[in-house]
Structures are given as structure tokens and as C-alpha cells.
Model the fold of this input.
Amino acid sequence: MRRNFLLLRGLLLALSLRTTLPAAAAPISRDDPESSDTSSRGISTARGSAVVVTANPLASKAALAALKNGGNAIDALVTAQAVLAVVEPQSSGLGGGGFLLHWEAKQRQLAVLDGREVAPERSRPADLLDAAGNPLPWRQATSKANAIGIPGTVALLWEAHQNHGQLPWAQILQPSIRLASDGFLPSPRLLRSILLAQRFGVAHSPDFQALYLPGGQPPAADQRFRNPALARTLRLLARGGGPAFYQGPLAQQILGGINALQASEPNFRGWSSADLSSYAVVRRTPLCSQQLQHRICTVPPPSSGGLALLQTLALLNQTTHLASSSAGEPQVWRQLARAQAWADADRLYWVHDPIDGAVPSAALLDPAYLDSRARAMQRANGERPAPGLPPGIDRYPYGRPDQDIEQGTSQITIVDASGNIASYTSSVETIFGSRHLIGGMVMNNQLTDFAFKPSLGGKPVANRRLPGRRPMSSMAPTLVFRKGEPVLALGSPGGRSIPHLLSRVLLASLVWNDPPARAVGLPHLSRRGTTLVLESNPPLPWPFPLQQLKSEASPRLQSIGSGTALIQKIDAGWQGAADPRREGTALVLP
Done:
């Protein structure tokens, strides 16, 4: 009898919630161009001496094979990303960019490789404004040639391999070449993404339509899908190495394809050969902070995601009794949402390409500054937070832009048997990037991550579009250390919400001591402007009735398309977990 009563009570609560919260928005939006996969609730986990977690089972199998053949974490990373370019082109690929956080176990060195896209030399600050000086509609801007940045993925993979790889470069590209040439059965998520891209707009790209929508329909689920043009591109890279992308026949093919877009876009000034040949990966110092009794290290600007992640955790820790908290306490989740919003206010104002001067990351993480921000957050009565003035800065030098979003991203996390770790986030931006294809590659639209308006209120915007600059990102591949030893590695796609997602995962892992599967499977929330977005159909249920999440922000239920790849040290081995919201798979060596 009591069981029936509890079931009825739960049903009534669910029905009540549906009447008080708005329904989920359509999948195509600035927040979530790629919806999460709600068809499967299984969480892929694996435990062993070496672990790979990627967003697709074919990429995970290729990475594991590289480890079995004597390769290390970097060899496995290169082969996995090359495979993802074939089987998950909607999210990442050779025509995009990314950030790598790499732990070299023997030398005990942690390094960041920045392979973010770069604005070409003919870029102008007003490239994404209309004739009247107003920002183009975001959806329209995503398809423009002026939105495509000089890709950095190949350069990053090549530099990482040249410095740390053990297997021949050509060998680790073979799995991707075979899949592109011989074909593979398209996954449900790929087919769904093609339909989403069709709704989003592909009329500007005959090449996209010919490959992914032949006859106006996506490929058949039961027939092998082939990309012979991408196979040819990968063979050129296998023979010529990473430099072949930036100089030589392949580079000329890329330049020809890009500059051909001038015929339909007269405002596009094209790329020069120097735009490609001068591209360089930047080695940066990891951004680290002592948080939650661990040292947490992530990537610095031009990504804002790492800064926001560290600020969010610090603000949450100062306003909540975390040590005695649990996932079943709504107050912790409310404070997490507030901390996200206050961290966003800082990072979206202050972060830009460091080529134009240092970003005050250290000052923004100063304990006294964070204490003052935490007190202000507690006093605030629902107003939208403003950026703060960190120590040593007495004025606001920049215009304050609107919050911009990026999506269409993938995560790879790998640890090998020697303890080397690669946490790598890569992206082509929105679903299938710009939808332009060259050499079978999806070309990014990352330059929409710059502020569209270069100045506001008579002041320059920090993240303004300028030649040779890298737009602000939200990617935040992260490593966690305890007593100097790495104990956890993770990262996630999710656009501007990446630090929101990762802060919740780290809260579960480091404070609630949840195992990897539960840490990635628990629900997400994300503060977006004045709206609190609550995950509508999480892999694991909300640990309390959502009616208890009363907030000053208007709550909205919708899917949240995360894709966390997490690996954690447990006893003498490593355990990996792949986010079930995508097609992620964790595989191990025993």
C-alpha cells in the first residue's frame, strides 16, 4: 500500500512540475545545436592499467589498438581524433581546432598545447556585421566564409606526436583511412545530426548536400557510408605529415576551396598562403589552483572555460558547507548555479587572446578577490552579476558584450600504462561547423566565437575579432592532482556550458566521492543569462523533486548535450566512464 502511495505521489509531483516549468526548446538553438542522446541509458565504464574514453566506439577501438601495438597516450590520441574526423564529423575534425592538456609521467611535466583556430590576416573587426553595422543573426553567421578560422587540429596532433609519439605517424592514421575509404555503418547520432544540420541550413553548401544528403536524404543506416575525398586527404597527411596540411598540394587545395567562396560572398576577402604556412601551435602554461583538497589544472586563455571552472568551484566552496554536503541537497545545486553565473560574468568580460596583453587570470583567482565575489554573490538578490575588478585593476577597460555560445565539440581522455595522460577537447563549432567541406573535411565556424561587435559604449571589446587572433573558447580539458600525482582526468563538449558541466562532475567526484559512472551520469544544470536550465531527461534521475530547486532564475527543462570523458585513479588502476548522452565508449588494457 505504501509503495502505491509513493508511486502516486511521484506521478503527481512530475505532473505538477510539467505544468510549472516550460517544455524543452527545439534542438536547434544557440544553446544546444546538438541534442543529447536519450535513447540509451547505459554508461560505458572500464577499469584497467590503461584506459581510453572517446565519443565514439570506433575511435575508442582505434585508440586502444594503438596502445596494444606499443603506442602511448599521444599515439592513441592522434588515431582517435583522426577516426572521429571520419565517424563524428558533426563535432570535431581536421578542419577545426582544440586544446590538449598532456601529462608526461617520466619527466613529470604538465603542458598545454593550444591548437585554436586563428583569424586570417584579411579579417576585419566588422566582418560579421551587416551593412547597417548590426550583428548578423547568429544562425546566418555560422555558414559564412568569414566565420571559418585557420584550422589548428592537424598542427596540434603533429606537434604532440613529434615530441611524444612512439609509433610511426603514417601507421596511426591507417584506421581513419580505412574507415573513410571502406566505409562504416553510420551511427544513430550521426544520422540525427545530419537531419539537424539540414534544418539548420545547408543550402549554401552543395558539397555537404552531395555527401551527407544525397537525393535530399541522409545515408541509409544499414549501408556503409564512405568519404573518399577525406580518405585522399588522410593519405596525403600520412605521407607528408602535419606540415602537408599547411604547405604543398593539400594546402593549395584548401586555399582554393576557401577562396572559391568569394564568388558567392563578395564581403569575404579570402585567405593567403601565409595564413596557412604561418599557423603555429602555442605552448602555454597550465592554469592551476588548489581546490577541494586537490590541485586542479586546466587550460588558460584564450580559453575561458578553465578559469570559469576554477572560479565556480571556489565560489561554491566559499558559500556552501561542501564537506558535509550530498547530491540530495537542493541548496548545493542552487549555489552551484549561482557560482556558474558569477564566474561567467568575469570570464566573458576579461578573457581574450593573450597576444593583446595578459589576461588577469591569477588576479581573478586570488583568494581575497574570490572571497569578495562570494560575499557579493550571497548579497545579490537575483540581479544579473556584473564582472568584478580583480586586484591591481582599478577600471573597466573593455565594453561589455552579450554572452556568446559555441557548440559542436568532442572530448578524448586517455591514460596509458606508463601513466602518461592526454585530455583533449576539439571542435568544429556548431553542428558540422560551417557545413562547408574541403577535401572531405568539415570546415569550422569558430570565428563566431569572437564578439560580433568590436566595440561597445566607446570601448573595445576584449574578445574582438582581429587578424591573427584566436577567439575566446570555453574548452576546459582538466587534470586533478593529489599529493603531486594525477588522480583524475576529464573534459567535455558543451559550448559555453562546458565549465558548468565539469564543475558539477568534479563536485560529484571530489566532494561526494561518487564513482565515475555516477559522476558523469548525474543530471546537469546550466545558468544561461537569467534562465536556469535543468536537464530534462538525465541518464540518472534527479536526486530530489525538481520543485525543490526554487531559484531567482526562471527554470526551464531541456536536454543538455554534454559528453564527458572521465578517467579516475582508483586503488592501483584507472577507471574510465563515458557520458551516455552521446555514443561514448570506455575501453581498457588489463
Remarks:
- The chain has a mean pLDDT of 92.
